[in-house]
Design brief:
Order of helices and strands of chain B: EEEEEEHEHEHHEHEEEEEHEHEHH
Strand content of chain A: 25-35%
Largest sheet of chain B: 8 strands, parallel, barrel
Oligomer: heterodimer
Number of domains of chain B: 1
Structural class of chain A: alpha/beta
Helix content of chain B: 25-40%
Largest sheet of chain A: 7 strands, mixed
CATH class of the largest domain in chain A: Alpha Beta
Number of helices of chain A: 4
Number of strands of chain B: 16
CATH superfamily of chain B: Aldolase class I
Helix content of chain A: 10-25%
Order of helices and strands of chain A: EEEEEHEEHEEEEHEEEEH
Radius of gyration of chain B: 18 Å
CATH superfamily of the largest domain in chain A: Nucleotide-binding domain of ferredoxin-NADP reductase (FNR) module
Low-confidence stretches of chain B: none
Shape of chain B: globular
Strand content of chain B: 15-25%
Structural class of chain B: alpha/beta
Number of domains of chain A: 2
CATH topology of chain B: TIM Barrel
């Protein structure tokens, strides 16, 4: 069940220039949260920002009753959120959307830039099922892969950077680990990366889920603004997604934009 | 407790707070957040003769104190609405109204006729004001003669309460309101979105796939209040006011300007529980001002 709640910020970490994380404590008991689900964050006291900002859930700590958001500063809304301090409160609508299925015995998780955020909770979810995922993280440069070592507790981690500052030089799809044998692929990151991963999975006949990010207003399937052109017609990324099976996205995969 | 009950033609509302079409889905989307039976009414998504996919993405852009949308009437179509959606929502203890949309007079009539058969839908809101479709929509709502013609034809096939939703994108909304009143409308609701546009200067492209779209949110409220006030003084039928309402004080502005009921739109996206907060706020206001019946302040300006 979705809810609105005022969370208290109990932790804040700056992760390079572009990223920060917020650890938020729920006033009561956190409901179950699927990997890949997201929150709609209210940006208060900001004249230029009207709408909430959709942010994926990076981690959930049931014992501490906290969830963690990993945020990239991309515009006015996220810039304002970056100014929040420990002790302040933050209003969220959550948990939203349809998450990853956490299927497969040999899963590969491919993340790029801010898209690595939901893969952390996903890696943990696999690990809890006794499955060790292969995790492949990419970015233009090392500083743009904001969370690295923490992934190692849940799986084998590989890196690809375009400038070679971390791991293999090149794109995630060029990394030797990408070509391994997997029975399920999950990806989140820049659209060209997700499309390349999705097309590869379709070619190889491997199940693949992608987590899309579209501009949205309500986050609950009411405004119909965030649609993706799926094979079943326009579907709300906020409600039917953000995680989609690529087999439903052949039009999206084929589109160049 | 003050009496909040108001009436739109034959429809009794337990309070004046309704939801605006296209911002509240079919109501179900909000059931986790509020008790839907506390609302005066729910106006469901604009419904057309056939299923529509709407316009391509991107179809939303945030603007100062508002947003532009160009959804373009994406909906399941009246057939699926009647067969699948209506049975799920018909027993919600509030007034369920259907926003009837179309590209031709025939389509408006056909949708209205099918909705007429639904027992638990006491009225329709005829949408002659959608700015985001190529054919029909706002085209019918910007000319008094055209507006009157659509209303006249729909009136022939629709027996229950007929509310006509007006566009603000006209020289004189009063002329349109008078025309639809004369053609047989039982009520008018206003305003639909204002036609607007935004450009992404970094990418040197329009923000919306359709270039232009409908502006809503707090930024449109003063225009909406002015138009409601003008229309309420010009017609005899009840006026439903909407445009940028986000709190009880906003709703009260519309009521004082002459609206018998209000609709909350964009604010539902920011706070899915805002409607019931407005209902509570109206009650608080009445108690604070010793108002026994909300109707006592309707149209006092």
């Amino acid at each position: 069940m979705k809810q609105i709640a005022d969370f208290t910020i109990v932790g804040r970490e700056q992760l390079g220039e572009q990223y920060f994380s917020l650890t938020l404590r729920h006033p009561d008991q956190l409901p179950a949260i699927e990997a890949g689900q997201f929150v709609e964050v209210e940006v208060s006291d900001c004249r230029e920002v009207l709408l909430r900002r959709p942010i994926s859930i990076h981690d959930v700590d049931e014992e501490q009753n906290t969830l963690k958001l990993l945020v990239q500063i991309v515009g006015k809304g996220t810039r304002k959120l970056s100014e929040l301090k420990v002790g302040e409160s933050l209003n969220l609508i959550f948990p939203l959307g349809h998450g990853f299925s956490v299927r497969g015995e040999r899963p590969l998780l491919v993340g790029g830039g801010a898209g690595i955020a939901p893969l952390f909770h996903l890696a943990k979810s696999y690990s809890r099922k006794g499955v060790e995922p292969t995790i492949l993280l990419g970015g233009r440069t090392k500083a743009l892969i904001p969370v690295r070592d923490a992934f190692e507790q849940y799986g084998r981690v590989f890196y690809a950077t375009e400038d070679g500052s971390l791991g293999e030089k090149g794109l995630v799809t060029q990394h030797p680990a990408f070509a391994g044998r997997y029975d399920h692929i999950c990806t989140c990151g820049p659209t060209p990366m997700m499309k390349a991963v999705g097309r590869y999975a379709m070619e190889k006949g491997v199940e693949c889920e992608v987590s899309l990010e579209n501009m949205m207003a309500c986050g609950i399937g009411a405004c119909l603004c965030c649609v993706c052109d799926t094979d079943d017609g326009h579907k709300c990324v906020c409600k039917e997604g953000p995680v989609f099976d690529v087999r439903k996205l052949t039009k999206w995969l084929a589109a160049t934009k | 407790m003050a009496k909040l009950e108001t009436k739109i033609h034959n429809i009794v509302l337990k309070n004046p707070v309704m939801t605006a079409s296209g911002t509240f889905g079919y109501g179900e989307e909000f059931a986790d957040f509020i008790d839907l039976s506390r609302l005066g009414g729910i106006v469901v998504k604009g419904t057309t003769g056939e299923r529509r996919q709407g316009n391509p993405y991107p179809r939303m852009a945030e603007t100062p104190a508002g947003m532009l949308n160009a959804v373009g009437l994406q909906n399941v179509g009246v057939g699926t609405f009647c067969k699948e959606v209506y049975p799920r929502i018909k027993d919600i203890d509030t007034n369920i109204l259907v926003n009837v949309s179309g590209s031709s007079i025939e389509e408006y009539c056909s949708v209205a006729e099918q909705v007429d058969a639904l027992d638990n839908v006491p009225g329709i809101e005829l949408n002659i004001s959608c700015p985001n479709v190529k054919k029909g929509g706002m085209g019918f709502g910007t000319d008094p003669a055209m507006a009157a013609q659509v209303v006249k034809e729909v009136r022939k096939v629709y027996r229950k309460t007929l509310i006509v939703k007006l566009t603000p994108n006209v020289t004189s909304i009063v002329d349109i309101a008078k025309a639809v009143e004369q053609a047989g409308a039982d009520s008018v609701s206003l305003i639909n979105t204002l036609l607007g546009m935004a450009i992404d200067v970094e990418r040197q492209r329009p923000c919306l796939s359709t270039i232009t779209g409908g502006l809503s949110g707090p930024c449109v409220k003063p225009i909406a209040v002015r138009m409601v006030w003008q229309v309420a003084h010009a017609v005899q039928i009840p006026v439903v006011g909407l445009g940028g309402i986000s709190c009880a004080a906003d709703a009260l502005e519309f009521l004082m300007a002459g609206a018998k009921a209000v609709q909350v739109g964009t604010a539902n996206f920011l706070d899915p529980a805002v409607t019931v907060k407005i209902v509570d706020g109206l009650q608080d206001y009445c108690q604070r001002h010793q108002i026994e019946d909300i109707n006592d302040i309707i149209g006092i300006i």
